[in-house]
Amino acid sequence: MQLLSVINFNDLLKSIVIMLLTILLLGLLLKKLNQPYFVAYIIGGILLGPYLLKIFSNTDTITVIGELGLLVQMFFVGTKMEIQTLAKSIEKPIVGVLVQLFLSFIFILILGLYQKWSWQEILLFSFIISLSSSAIILEYLEKNNEIKTPLGTLTSGILILQDFMLVPMLLTINFIGQKALTIDQIIPLALSTIAITIFLKAIFSKKVINLHFPEKLKDDHEAQVFIGLLLCFGFGWLTQMLHLSAAIGALIGGILISKSNSMQWLEVRLIPFRVFFLSLFFLSIGLQINVDFLIHHLGLIFLIVAIILFVNSAINAFVFRLFKESWRNSVYAGALLSQIGEFSLVLCLVAKTQNLVNEFWYQLTLSIISATMLMTAIWINIIRTFIYKQASHLRNVGDFMYRKLKKSKKYGNTILYNDNLKDT
């Protein structure tokens, strides 16, 4: 037991127990308020972090482990993708993402010119607010059995393409941070991008991919777990080595699973790992938030959060209206995509390492991103209540007018010109 005493096993065990108990109690409490568990993870991180209870003073290890949660989440996104459906309507998500990015840039440009930001800051913040949270929204759609609906498919397609946009965004940040890539990095990057594009095109063109795994693996649960994690982290490591985002590799691994009838069991075996790693990712977000900064700038943060939720909702609602969606679906989809996502945290961290933002802007951006994710469920419920109340109100008015008109017809009043008014 000498090794355990060297790494202070008692303190480590105590920290883990307190973390699990805190998350469990917060999760059960927030579940009664119809809030998702990720809210408990972020709040738990804030409470247990170095600024309050100080249960975790060194957050680097949990942050690294939490980043693995992103890979597991992207792997599951790939397994849930309806590839054939997305491939048939890929034009809409592409147009939607481009229009969304353009409108986000216009909004930040107007704000930046007023605040006299540099063009690097304008471009960076345009990228940050344009990325929504795949981890939150795809889970939300799945829980509400909406992920395979036409609206859910289009929303998922936009989220996935947003995740793909992370790569050119990261490259752009590297360039504007005056940290130019060498020729040894540019050539592998270009070749790997072309190779992945060809690979994805081949996957999209085939309905089923047979990987021919032995039948006995279907009963070997331990082997299934290691195969799944190997595909997830293996593809992630491969794309990382090729100077691309590891998240893209994990996504490709998940897509490969979704296309293979012989490997559907992997998804079921990895669900506990998804919950564990993803919880650590959101916990690590809370651990990095400076509570003193948050309290001191609370008014500014919530003002910006309210503006972002409203503006992003309006931008995304406009995008969905371009695709001839109903106003109710458009407003609902706008609310779904209104928050700033987890990949924006990656952009923010890279921007800090490139000295594009100072500590103030880093903490402000981190607090705003976290707050928009925390407010997502509340904001969506507000929008859902509003649009359904409006719809119910309109239906009640229609029924009232129909009864009045029918009554007028009964007494011979010529006000009723169409007996099928109720159907219209």
How does this model look, in words?
By secondary structure, the protein is mainly alpha-helical. The chain folds into 2 domains: 1-58; 64-281 and 292-423, Up-down Bundle (Na+/H+ antiporter like fold), CATH 1.20.1530. The protein contains 20 helices and no strands. The longest helix is centred in the last third of the chain and has 52 residues, at 359-410. It is globular. The termini are far apart. The model is unreliable at 1-6 and 411-424 (pLDDT under 50).
Give the structure's gist in a few sentences.
By secondary structure, this protein is mainly α. Helices cover 77% and strands 0% of the residues.
Coarse shape: globular
Secondary structure tally, helices:
20
The tally of structural domains comes to 2
User: What percentage of residues falls in helices of 4 or more residues?
Assistant: over 70%
* CATH topology description of the largest domain: Na+/H+ antiporter like fold
Name the average pLDDT.
Answer: 77
CATH architecture of the largest domain: Up-down Bundle
Order of helices and strands: HHHHHHHHHHHHHHHHHHHH
Secondary structure category: mainly alpha
Poorly predicted sequence stretches spanning 5 or more consecutive residues: 1-6, 411-424
- What is the CATH C-level name of the largest domain? Mainly Alpha
Kindly estimate the percentage of residues that lie in beta strands according to DSSP.
under 5%
What are its keywords?
about 425 residues; Na+/H+ antiporter like fold; about 75% helix; globular; disordered N terminus
